[in-house]
Amino acid sequence: MSTENNVGAAVKSVRPALLPPGELAYYGGLGLMAVFGLVEWPVAGVLAFGTMIARAGRESSQARARGSGG
Asked: Cα–Cα distance between 25 and 48 in angstroms, integer?
């Protein structure tokens, strides 16, 4: 019983740090494409980094819009 509570608490604490399933699939697919040589590692890295920057910018602009009374 105590182990189940510990596992549940661990899942609740880790869940916010995990990527949403769609993003996890994107980055996983990008990694697999690099592993199998469909894209070069530097290209995969630039694509992943660019996607992260774009997402952060979008989330920032949405937060500003919500904060301005919208």
From this structure: 12
